[in-house]
Amino acid sequence: KGLYAMKALAGGHLIDQLEESFNFVRNIKGISSIAVGMVKQEELELNLKIFNDEEISQELLTQKIKPSKRLFILSLCKGCGTCVKTCPNNALFLENGKAVVDYKLCILCGYCNPVCPEFAIRII
User: Fold this and answer.
1) Fold of 71-123
2) Has UniProt tagged this entry with the keyword Iron-sulfur (predicted)?
3) Mean pLDDT in each 10-residue stretch from start to end of the chain (124 residues)?
4) What pTM was computed for the model?
């Protein structure tokens, strides 16, 4: 029995504070496990080292951190425009009832993500 935590890295927004973020969640009383999404072998190796309190090589850290990212609007978008109003760079606009990203203006600040009522915005 117990609770498990999700989104310890805030959907990838805290990737630069990987160890600190995981350790913060690990130290919350009552949390017995953390669900961690992984795509690459290196991410698995890194996460195993973190959770086993093993030393992490700089090489392994640099392999996993900072892949090129993009902002995606999922099909869940209902076109409410909340993200458009929130974007400080005017990188989002509505087209055909859905939010669209102007990648030339998007700086991946992530302000749009938490205001989306449909959870349709991802930075991957």
Assistant:
1) Alpha-Beta Plaits (3.30.70)
2) yes
3) 86 80 92 86 87 87 68 97 97 98 91 96 92
4) 0.51
